[in-house]
Design brief:
Elements: H1 9-34, H2 37-44, E1 50-54, E2 56-57, H3 62-65, E3 70-71, H4 73-86, E4 89-90, H5 93-102, E5 109-116, H6 119-131, E6 136-140, H7 143-147, H8 152-162, E7 167-168, E8 181-182, H9 186-201, H10 206-220, H11 224-230, H12 238-246, E9 250-253, H13 265-280, E10 289-291, H14 301-307, E11 312-314, E12 333-334, H15 341-349, H16 351-368
Helix pairs in contact: 2-15, 4-6, 4-15, 8-9, 8-10
């Protein structure tokens, strides 16, 4: 038996509409730059803090796998060149927050952050930032730093993306039942992938998850051992975290297991405490800055973090920060391979920030209008 689902033509139409909208956006941005609107936006948003967010850097084909999550080294270097060319002043996170409090920001202040603590951030991202003498904050999630193995969920996703197999024989994986699986159908492929991830994550030990990942890789002809040796899906080692810290990188909090139960104060407190205790064994810096894993947060998180002595927390929501911004809900711009250079420059210049502010005010005006 092979599972078969018919592709939805509506989804293809939606993809075409999204592509056309993106092309139109890029044309509008290029015209806006030519008309001098970028320069005007820089003036109107001067003194507002731009916090940039990066994740992993490409050791192989990671940018094709997850363009929002990975960026290649040359593109990142060009990004930093844009910062320099625009006259941005790249500040450390602590310095930027102090200047926000004091109200003495430079015209184009920028903070560079990297999430998770990828090995590629240490081997590629940090050295490029050092070439520009730009400070960097890395928010490190510590579980996989301690375990030193590929991140299970991401490794499984990568193997399903990478495989050339079109079918899996019946009975190959007991967790999907005794049916053959048609991997050529993307909906079925995704369903089986997530069932595999959930099955593995329900196991109690990391060793069990690794055995499941190895079994998946063997079936899909994408060896788990290659992911181990390349470290493309792995985080820094404790020694590398320590070495990055010794080189001047600001190591900060990102939960221990890269998750917590939203609305559960005990879960968030435990994750931050475990994360802080783990990282404290690798650095001697005060660990008082935090990044919400996957941008997951709500106002109930704020008193918990404040009670733990956390001074700032960054989200994954776009925007600039001012003296009035909540220190425990700071916005950031997520850069990656999916972002074009003109979009990046539009964000830095403030064009996209002004557009967000305008949309927000129009929504407010609409909601207040009489029916």
């Amino acid at each position: 038996m092979i599972l078969v689902l018919t592709a939805n033509p509506k989804s293809k139409s939606l993809i075409r509409v999204q592509i056309n909208q993106m092309q139109m956006k890029l044309v509008v941005l290029r015209i806006a730059k030519w008309l001098g609107i970028f320069g005007l936006a820089r003036h109107l948003t001067r003194g507002r803090l731009r916090i940039l967010c990066y994740h992993g850097f490409c050791l192989a084909d990671e940018a094709s796998f997850r363009p929002k999550l990975f960026i290649d080294g040359p593109t990142f270097e060009r990004r930093l060149g844009i910062l320099k060319g625009m006259g941005c002043e790249v500040l450390s996170l602590q310095d930027a927050l102090q200047r926000l409090d004091d109200g003495i920001m430079p015209a184009l202040p920028v903070v560079l952050t990297m999430d998770d603590g990828w090995y590629s951030s240490y081997s590629i991202g940090v050295p490029i930032a050092e070439k520009f003498a730009y400070p960097v904050t890395i928010y490190v999630t510590s579980y996989y730093v301690e375990k030193q193995c590929p991140i299970f969920r991401l490794a499984v996703q990568y193997m399903f993306w990478k495989t050339n197999r079109t079918t899996i024989p019946a009975g190959e994986w007991d967790w999907v039942g005794k049916v053959a699986i048609d991997l050529a159908d993307h909906k079925i492929r995704d369903e089986v992938m997530w069932r595999s991830i959930k099955f593995g994550e329900a196991r109690t030990s990391q060793g069990e998850r690794e055995q499941i990942a190895r079994r998946i890789g063997k079936t899909l002809d994408v060896t788990y051992e290659a992911l181990e040796s390349s470290r493309s899906m792995s985080l820094m080692t404790p020694d590398e975290v320590r070495a990055a810290y010794d080189r001047g990188v600001d190591i900060q909090l990102h939960t221990h297991r890269h998750s917590f139960l939203l609305g559960d104060p005990g879960s968030l407190a435990t994750e931050v405490t475990d994360n802080r205790e783990s990282l404290a064994r690798m650095t001697s810096r005060s660990l008082t800055h935090f990044c919400y894993p996957s941008g997951q947060w709500n106002p109930s998180c704020l008193p918990i973090l404040a009670g733990l002595g956390v001074q700032s927390a960054t989200t994954c929501e776009p925007g600039f920060s001012t003296r009035m911004s909540l220190r425990l809900a700071l916005p950031r711009f997520l850069d990656g391979s999916n972002i074009c250079a003109i979009e990046f420059e539009a964000e830095l210049s403030g064009v996209l920030e002004l557009a967000r502010i305008l949309r927000s005010r129009l929504r407010m005006a609409g909601s207040q209008s009489p029916a």
